[in-house]
Amino acid sequence: MTSVYQRYFLSPERLYLDCWTRYFLRQHLDLTQVKASCNVGIGVGEFDDWLGHHLTGHAKLTSVDIDHTVVAAFRERQRRHEHPNPSVVVHGDLMQASLGPFDLVTMVGSTASETHAPARALQCAQDWVRPGGWFYTTLMHSISNPRSLMAELRGELIVEEFTAMEESGFTAVLARQPGVIDDPATPDDTPEPDAKADPTESETT
Questions:
Q1: Which residues are bridge partners to 175 per DSSP?
Q2: Fewer CB atoms < 10 Å away: N or C end of the chain?
Q3: Which of residues 191 and 199 earns the better pLDDT score?
Q4: How far is residue 158's CA from residue 4's CA, in Å, rounded to a whole number?
């Protein structure tokens, strides 16, 4: 990781984004209701680490990324740090993979925009949510048009803008999918630890 990226990940702007991304989800969703969850776009893996901790004891997290080096590094880091609820890590392309269904699917930070087809990415991610489940995303103001992208989201929306730090401004959206969860997902519904979705790298996360 270059010094430029190191400075960014330790910057107040990054900490602001991380803090309020997690705060919003915790405030608006009782994570104890979640039995199976998926995060699309691992990046440095800090959000996955945090969410996995909060799901310990009642749910597994599946972490998906198209970059095989990110997948390998994240899996090894969780093993080395002895994470109490390590992710099921999947190397795959959101646009082509078929995973789930999950009670909760998340796509935060710049992930949607980095696919270069953010509207389609949001639609594909929502397809992994079971009826009555939740889809959570954050839309960065500097690289996306949140109002336009929110039109792609299904279900009942909870929306909040975070603009105290202009460089890290974003809109958080939690979408409750239509339907009722009659048979909540269980950890057994998630892929095996070495499972792979379609690894075709036509998009980037």
A1: 135, 157
A2: N
A3: 191
A4: 34
pTM, full prediction? 0.85
Give the number of other Cβ atoms within 10 Å of residue 171's Cβ: 21
* Tokens linked to 52: 């996995």
As a whole number of angstroms, the distance between CA 109 and CA 33 comes to: 24
Q: What is the pLDDT of residues 123-155, one digit of tens each?
A: 999 999 999 999 999 999 999 999 999 998 999
What angle (nearest 5°) sits at the alpha carbon of residue 129, between those of residues 42 and 103?
A: 85
pLDDT of residue 205: 34
Distance CA 122, CA 107 (A): 8
Distance (Å, whole) CA 64 – CA 98: 11
Convert the pLDDT of each residue in 69-88 to its tens digit: 999 999 999 999 999 999 99
What's the token pair of residue 73? Answer: 């590094």
